Amino acid sequence: MRARAVLTVERVGERSVVRELRSQSPLSLVPRRGTAAAYDSAVTVHLVGSASTPLAGDDVELAVRVGPGADLVLTGVAAAVALAGPSTLTMRFEIAEGASVQYLPEPTVITSRADHHTLVHAELHETARLRAREILVAGRSGEPSGRYRGTTRVTQEHRPLLHQTQDLGDPVLQASPAHLAGRRVLGTEILLWGADGPAAAGDWWALTPLAVRGSLATAVGPDAVSTQRALAEAVATHPGWTAEVLTPPLEVS
Q1: Among candidates 103, 105, 90, 28, which has minimal Cα distance to 59?
Q2: How far apart (Å, rounded) are the C-alpha atoms in residues 150 and 2?
């Protein structure tokens, strides 16, 4: 199934608003509503996928444009399960002057017969901010991982800030201390937010400064919950991060 979706967010007065929202099955975009949303200066949009995606033949792309001064939180509602066969997911972000994006999907499980490819490409203004998280689970409980390749490209005024590719599905590679060290879950989080700081490390996590600006947090763990906790510990050491930046509670109505 081929699906294309578009999300455009702009700043109007003191608030960010959705200007354009187009979804196609199997991906739906659901804006946060209710009283809490009315008082939040940022827009929160939930990514809702069908239970049978990504599946063989799925080719899903989402283009996100965030205008000057606007703020977007793009978050998932449930884990994605990559099923048998080749599938692709492409996320493209354009983040304008003074704007911010928090891209916080739920974990992706790579089942044994999957062949899933992802591309996340973000183009930022030099004053824009980005937080982007990815949690990859190598197989369901008791099964080996299928094939996965994910590429992340972040550019600022067309200058590269980060370009990396992650692979799953090779047992030798996953057993290596340079990759998963025999663990089952890999988590990464890009932080282009506020002041930068030095490298830091803890039990099963590391925070690495990028060459131009920002940092990359990496963690591995036996399950998604402990890996997310390790990532949160890494992010908490970033000097540009503050308690004011919180992920809004899930409210789909």
Answers
A1: 90
A2: 19
95-148 confidence digits (pLDDT tens): 999 999 999 999 999 999 999 999 999 999 999 999 999 999 999 888 999 999
Task: Show the tokens assigned to 142.
Answer: 């008791």
Whether pTM > 0.85 for this model: the answer is: yes
Q: Where are the domains of the chain?
A: 2-182
